[in-house]
Amino acid sequence: MEKRPNILWYCTDQQRFDTIGALGNPHIHTPRLDAFVRQSVAFTHAYCQSPICTPSRASFMTGMYPSAVSVTGNGNPVFPQYYEDRLISRALAFDGHDCGLVGKLHLASAFDARERRVNDGYRYFQYSHDHRKPNAFGHEYADWLRAQGVAPEELMTPRATLKTSRTSAGRVREPTADMDNIPPHLHQTYWCTEKSIEFIEKNRRENQPWLLNVNPFDPHPPFDAPWEYYRRYDPETLPRVHFQESDIAYQSKLTEAGIDFQSQSKPPSDWDDKRMQASYYAMIEQIDHEFGRLLDYLDAKGLRENTIVIFTSDHGEALGDHGLVYKGCRFYEGLVRVPLIISWPTHFLADVQSDALVELLDLVPTLYEVIGADIP
């Protein structure tokens, strides 16, 4: 009987579809993702089921629509226990996989501390909702920083905002060489790779397949890329956002009608859109490097051939389109269309770009089918 594959599921937070060089963006530097695209099937029209975190994640982890799984917004105190058996991590754990999570979970509210868990199937659980809140209960990334001899309370203070805060929202934290944000070797995205390697290396029965969900916080706002990556982008060379003056009045009507969003429409210059875009791209370039470092580890250990690798994101980012930033109830391409790139060297085709319409909730039933597990 053929050995079941491992599954490495890398999910960024708030990454738009148009942020990968090999998929049509000449302004961003993503060499490792570009190489991964050439080894994989890339779905260029993949859509999430909600433009906000929790319902999207609840959907793609169960293969159910947000309305069906009863998670339709952020802020729910706990994931519905009566659907915990539909979580793929729980199902595969019961079916013999060793399951681990690094970074975010966000199936429930995580505002002040580690979110409440149901029986989700994860044996290995290294939780960090974001790279802030160092004293929040259950913040393993902050604990790791302390183990490196670094005080997270000091490191996580947004020092770059002392230098400049050019946006009315204060969400672009522009670093300089002498006043950085969190540097790469101490960043949560780096920590995610370190803990992923730790999970793969340790505490598993011989020949036991594994599922690892890696969920870094970036490129979620605030736009606070490290100087090492930010310095590689000239904001003035980046493309303009999708905006026309009539957007402001139109978005105001939606807001007045109660269609909520995390920002109100303004001219893109009011958001300092060029620097915001530069920082967003820089955050993704750091993800690119760390994702590549994880692939290198799989190659070095001879695990790549029998590992399904998925790269995707939970939803997108407005990034100035229509005068909006962040996320909320709008269904523009920048918010609901996301990267989806899948590799399994011994079974899937390589260097294929498909424009077929796919949804993130397609992932769970597809994984069940390809590994020969029972589909709920």
What is this structure, in a nutshell?
The chain has 376 residues and is α/β, with parallel strands linked by helices. It contains 13 helices and 11 strands. The chain is 30% helix and 12% strand.
Distance between the termini: 23 Å
Low-confidence blocks of residues: 162-170
What is the overall pLDDT average? 93
Second CATH tier, the architecture: 3-Layer(aba) Sandwich
Q: Major sheet: order of its strands?
A: 5-4-6-1-7-9-2-10
Helix residue percentage: 25-40%
β-strand amount:
5-15%
Q: What is the CATH domain class?
A: Alpha Beta
Helical segment count: 13
Number of domains: 1
Q: Specify the overall morphology.
A: globular
Keywords:
376 residues; alpha/beta; Alkaline Phosphatase, subunit A; eight-stranded mixed β-sheet; 13 helices
Can you walk through the features of this model?
This protein has helices spanning about 30-40, 55-60, 65-70, 90-95, 140-145, 150-155, 160-165, 190-200, 225-230, 245-255, 275-300, 335, 365-370, and strands at about 5-10, 40-45, 45, 100-105, 125, 210-215, 305-315, 335-340, 340-345, 350-355, 360. Helix 8 runs parallel beside helix 11 (about 275-300). The chain has about 375 residues and is α/β, with parallel strands linked by helices. The protein is about 30% helix and about 10% strand. It has a single domain (about 5-370), classed as Alkaline Phosphatase, subunit A (3-Layer(aba) Sandwich), CATH 3.40.720. It has an eight-stranded mixed beta sheet, with helices on both faces. Strands 8-3-11 form a three-stranded mixed beta sheet. It is built from 13 helices and eleven strands. It is globular, with a radius of gyration of 20 Å.
